[in-house]
């Protein structure tokens, strides 16, 4: 119980006054943290939905096993990693089929400009 109360005090605390030092994140770090937390929450929510749909299908297909939340989460993360691998393979194939046609711009890869001015 003490740990829960201490955790609540830490989460609900605000910036210290009277010259106390405070540590803040830079704007880039804050954006990265918000992006990571968004996708983490999205993965947790998708796993919950997947578990619900799987167990809903069990009514029609009784041979399907009951799916727990941690297994649904593991399956969603595994499928996400597989999709990431497939996208990396597609990007690599693009480069292999058109060698040297892509150059890195400021933030993204773009087609190189040809002699006539068109990509």
Secondary structure elements and pairings:
Blueprint: H1 2-12, H2 27-57, H3 69-97, E1 102-104, E2 109-111
Antiparallel strand pairs: 1-2
Report on this model:
Helices cover 60% and strands 5% of the residues. The N and C termini lie far apart (65 Å). It has 119 residues and is mostly helical. The longest helix is centred in the middle third of the chain and has 31 residues, at 27-57. Helix 2 packs across helix 3 (69-97). The chain has a domain at 29-111. A two-stranded antiparallel sheet has the order 1-2. A hairpin with a 4-residue loop joins strand 1 and strand 2 (109-111). The protein is built from 3 helices and 2 strands. The mean pLDDT is 85.
Molecular shape: flat
Strand content: 5-15%
Integer-rounded radius of gyration: 24 Å
Question: Count the strands?
Answer: 2
Question: How is the largest sheet built, in terms of strand order?
Answer: 1-2
Q: Oligomeric status of the shown chains? A: single chain
Helix-strand sequence: HHHEE
The share of residues in helices is 55-70%
Number of helices: 3
Secondary structural class: mainly alpha
Give the biggest sheet: 2 strands, antiparallel
Provide mean pLDDT, rounded.
85
Instruction: Show unreliable segments.
Output: none
Instruction: Report the end-to-end length measured between terminal Cα atoms.
Output: 65 Å
Summarize the structure.
The protein is built from 3 helices and 2 strands; from the N terminus they run αααββ. With 119 residues, the chain is mainly alpha-helical. Helix 2 crosses helix 3.
